[in-house]
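Please describe what follows:
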Amino acid sequence: MPGRPGLLLLLAFSVLAPPGSAASARLSSCRRFGGATVFCSGRNVSGVPEELPPEATRLLFVGASLSSLPCRAFAPRNNGSSGGGGLRQLAFLDCPLRTLPGCALAGLPRLRELDVALAQLAGLPRGALLGLGRLSKLAVRHSRLEALEEGLFDGTPALQALQLQGNRLTTLPPRLFQPLPGLQALSLAQNRLAELPAETFQPLLRLRELRLSDNLLRRLPPRLFRPLAALRELFLDGNRLAELPRGLFAGLGRLRRLHLQHNALGRLEPPGLLAGLPSLAFLLLQDNQLARLPAGLFRGTPRLVELSLARNRLRDLPAGLFGNLSELSVLSLAHNRLGRVAAGTFRGLAGLGRLQLRHNALAVLPRAAFANLSSLEALDLAHNRLESLPEGLFDANEALVSLALEGNPWRCDCHLAPLAAWLSSLDHPLGARVLCRAPAPLEGRTLLAAREEQLLCPCQPGSARCRVDAPPPTEETGALDRDA
């Protein structure tokens, strides 16, 4: 379950506190650790400590049996205790909280971080966060939230990070984030959102990271992200998006990372869909249903460093598709249906270091397929339909240190002899494993285990490396052999 490793770490910390200390006695089942931190762990903890050390700034409940908090649970006590007035961080981890009344968090004027994880909250009332004017980080994760009321964030104008992943949210009020102009990171991942109002993110002018992964989104309003001029990272993976509207990414000139994998995208149109993304460095499109790509798709993304188109339905690639991507370092086209690669397909990829073409339908490669890839270090051609490779195919790839060739129906004859000679001449192994499928005498053996005189072809006019197959014995020649 998400969050468990962190919980175990916190529990380990709590064990380190001296059990016989005076602080432990005053705090019952809670223990001090590191002076300013108080841990309250175990199912025997059912309420907030009556007395907290005045120097305490962190209070963490881990695996406690807290199901609710009373009104003003952290306010100063009648006995003179300062309550939680000095707390800056408060966490409820793996506690069965069912409700958070509007007055429960009163008395925490200095609180900066509030973290609730693995709770049983169905919702947060409008006044739940009142009085938390200095709160900069709020996390309510994996806590069964089904709804959020408009006005919930009216009292938290300083909020910079909001994590709401792993809940059951189906809709959002259109103006929910209106009071949060300083928000920089927002996660709504792993919810049940099927649609978003067009004005949802309108006030978030400083937002740098937006996570909408693993929801039920089928379509997005064209202007949904238009106000997010400061956005650096956008996660839309794991949804049900079949198409993207014109202008969806307009205005996102600072965006560096875009995740669109694990959707139902069948096309990337209209033309210019990515034109407004000059800073984009990482684009993930794997696990969609793309059958073709527009020729100018990447014309407006010259700074791409990593591009994944794996696990789609691509049969061919338009000429010049990658011509503008001189900074691209990683390109994955694995698990598609590519039947051919033209000589100029990878032209322009001067900085490409890793190229993945495994699990396609490639039967033939032109000699110049990788001619301009002088920086290529890793090439994966495994599990295609290759029987041979043209001589000199890798002549320009002097930086190559890894070459995957397994899973092809290699025919180990004169056409593969140059490959065998090249592999044998290398000072460093490339990991290339070529297992012969034919001819019959070499079936199941590796190419490098075959002797040079075995890598022959039937004689053809002009052939230098060939064998003359003996004609089948006739009745006459057979009788002569017997007589001899």
Q: What stands out?
A: The CA atoms of residues 6 and 233 lie 25 Å apart. The chain has four helices and 23 strands.
